[in-house]
Each structure stands twice: as structure tokens, then as C-alpha cells.
């Protein structure tokens, strides 16, 4: 608890309390209560089937939880659709990236995932302006030097494509960006470039939720981590207070969780 009564605590960017999601008989989420602090990178880890995708899809408005509450900046919200999530400033970059391969980088950055019906349409799609603004967006993210605005996305490397998708997510004012295994398909150098981009997001005060299976990546990038197992959020650690091996143990269940009913042996520092 806070010691000074006069101090104000910033609420987390996102907090869930008691989220439950069932698919028929499958309990994909069971009483999931997690927090994602504003301006931090939070890793979300867990074995296949642990519930990671279901959790982020619930935050992204693709699933609606059967029970429980989601708060954004301390206010209870109903994330009933992807559009509502976007209006709340939550953007998700799924593994398929959602880019249109035959369009240029600039065109992809300006692609709305919903039809634009506005008198501004003509101006928005003005190629010249679009290129200039696209260049600015990439530069703001520190990615301008390695991504040509006129390049066709199809011919770009996996790292460049990931960067375009991330830039597009933040281009329109997202304050929370969810990344689903952004480096899973990338080599070492390209992963490093994506890591740089993720750090840049944090520098800009953006809250990042990062699904990853790469413990090295988690240890070097994240500020904190939630561990999921069989639909439950079983452990939370600050990265400074944990190790890769401890996280592996928590993920597999070899290390007894914080929240389980089994008495946990003391974890030595
Ligand atoms: N649309 C769905 N219909 C039925 N079962 C689902 C659906 N989505 C996920 N599940 C089930 O929910 C559980 C959690 O899955 P998921 O959230 O995809 O885990 P993870 O992303 O951690 O691998 C799994 O048992 C999975 O089979
Ligand atoms: Mg998944």
C-alpha cells in the first residue's frame, strides 16, 4: 500500500479482474486477474493452450468474457468489439500481421481496417501527402532508414513487415499495443531490430503486452511478466526479480505457483 495518503497512484493502463471465458466445456480463462502498467513492457508467457491468445483477444474485443471486469486507466469498460478496443487505444498486431502484400508500405500504413466514408477520403489517399506522412511515422519510430515507403510489402523481409505492422498499430494514437510473438519467425538480426522498435514504443510511453516464448527476449525486453497455465494467471514477477530458469519452472509447473493451493517452497533469491 502507498504510505503517503496525498500521493496519487497512476492506475494501470489495463487491469482485469476475475476474467472467465469458456468455449463449451473448455475453461480458456479461469479467474484471470492481471495488470499491465502504463508505459511498461509486460510479457505474457505460457505453454500452448494456456490461454494467452484468449486473454489478448478478450482485451482486443474479439472475445467477450463470460465473467469478470476489464479496466482501462482505472475505468471499467465493455470491450464489445475490435472497434471499441481501438477507440480505447488498444491495438493488436497478430501473427498474420494483417498487411496487404501487394500494396506499398505507405498504403499499408494508411489502410483502415474499416471502410472510410468521409469527405476526407480523397485527401487521405492523396499519394504525395501519404508518402510524406508515412515517412514521418516511420522516422518517429526510428525505422525510417530501413523501410522504404514506396516498397511493396510482399518483397520485404519478415523484420520489415513486422515493423510496418507495429508502426501502423501506433500510427493512429494507440496507447496500448499487444504483440503476439513478434519475433517468432525472425532471425537474430531482425529480432534485434524489432526489439529496438518495442523499446521505442516504451520510450514513447506506450504500454506493450508481449506474448513470447523466447526467455532471452523476455529477460532483456520486459519490465514484468505474467505466467499463464491452464487458463489461469499463476504467477507474476518483476523481471529484475526473476531468472529465465525460474520462469521456465513457473510456466511448466515444475516450480509451484504463487496462487495455487499447493504450499510453495520458499524461492531463494
Ligand atoms: N475459439 C475457440 N473455440 C474453442 N476452444 C478454444 C477457442 N479458442 C481457444 N480455445 C481453447 O482454449 C484454450 C486456451 O487456448 P489459447 O488461448 O489459444 O491458448 P494459448 O494462446 O496460450 O496457446 C485451449 O484449450 C484452446 O483449445
Ligand atoms: Mg495462442
TrEMBL record:
<feature type="domain" description="ABC transporter">
    <location>
        <begin position="14"/>
        <end position="255"/>
    </location>
</feature>
<dbReference type="GO" id="GO:0016887">
    <property type="term" value="F:ATP hydrolysis activity"/>
</dbReference>
<dbReference type="InterPro" id="IPR003593">
    <property type="entry name" value="AAA+_ATPase"/>
</dbReference>
<dbReference type="Pfam" id="PF00005">
    <property type="entry name" value="ABC_tran"/>
</dbReference>
<protein>
    <submittedName>
        <fullName>D-xylose transport system ATP-binding protein</fullName>
    </submittedName>
</protein>
<dbReference type="InterPro" id="IPR027417">
    <property type="entry name" value="P-loop_NTPase"/>
</dbReference>
<keyword id="KW-0547">Nucleotide-binding</keyword>
<dbReference type="GO" id="GO:0005524">
    <property type="term" value="F:ATP binding"/>
</dbReference>
<dbReference type="InterPro" id="IPR050107">
    <property type="entry name" value="ABC_carbohydrate_import_ATPase"/>
</dbReference>
<dbReference type="InterPro" id="IPR017871">
    <property type="entry name" value="ABC_transporter-like_CS"/>
</dbReference>
<keyword id="KW-0067">ATP-binding</keyword>
<dbReference type="InterPro" id="IPR003439">
    <property type="entry name" value="ABC_transporter-like_ATP-bd"/>
</dbReference>
Amino acid at each position: 500500500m502507498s504510505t503517503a495518503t496525498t500521493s496519487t497512484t497512476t492506475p494501470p493502463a489495463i487491469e482485469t479482474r476475475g476474467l472467465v471465458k469458456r468455449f463449451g466445456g473448455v475453461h480458456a480463462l479461469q479467474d484471470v486477474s492481471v495488470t499491465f502498467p502504463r508505459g511498461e513492457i509486460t510479457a505474457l508467457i505460457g505453454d500452448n493452450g494456456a490461454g494467452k491468445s484468449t486473454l489478448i483477444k478478450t482485451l482486443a474485443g474479439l472475445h467477450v468474457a463470460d465473467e469478470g471486469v476489464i479496466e482501462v486507466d482505472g475505468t471499467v469498460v465493455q470491450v464489445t468489439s475490435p472497434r471499441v478496443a481501438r477507440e480505447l487505444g488498444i491495438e493488436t498486431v497478430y501473427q498474420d500481421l494483417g498487411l496487404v502484400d501487394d500494396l506499398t508500405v505507405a498504403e499499408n500504413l494508411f489502410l483502415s481496417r474499416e471502410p472510410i466514408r468521409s469527405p476526407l477520403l480523397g485527401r487521405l489517399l492523396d499519394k504525395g501527402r501519404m508518402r510524406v506522412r508515412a515517412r514521418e511515422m516511420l522516422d518517429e519510430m526510428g525505422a525510417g532508414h530501413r523501410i522504404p515507403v514506396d516498397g511493396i510489402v510482399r518483397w520485404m523481409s519478415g523484420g520489415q513487415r513486422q515493423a510496418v505492422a507495429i508502426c501502423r498499430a501506433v500510427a493512429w494514437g494507440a496507447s496500448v499495443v499487444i504483440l503476439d510473438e513478434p519475433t517468432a519467425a525472425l532471425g537474430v538480426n531482425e529480432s534485434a531490430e524489432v526489439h529496438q522498435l518495442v523499446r521505442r514504443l516504451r520510450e514513447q510511453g506506450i504500454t506493450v503486452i508481449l506474448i513470447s516464448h523466447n526467455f532471452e527476449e523476455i529477460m532483456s525486453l520486459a519490465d514484468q511478466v505474467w505466467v499463464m497455465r491452464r487458463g489461469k494467471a499463476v504467477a507474476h514477477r518483476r523481471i529484475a526479480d526473476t531468472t529465465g530458469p525460474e520462469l521456465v519452472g513457473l510456466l511448466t509447473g515444475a516450480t509451484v505457483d504463487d496462487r495455487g493451493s499447493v504450499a510453495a517452497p520458499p524461492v531463494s533469491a
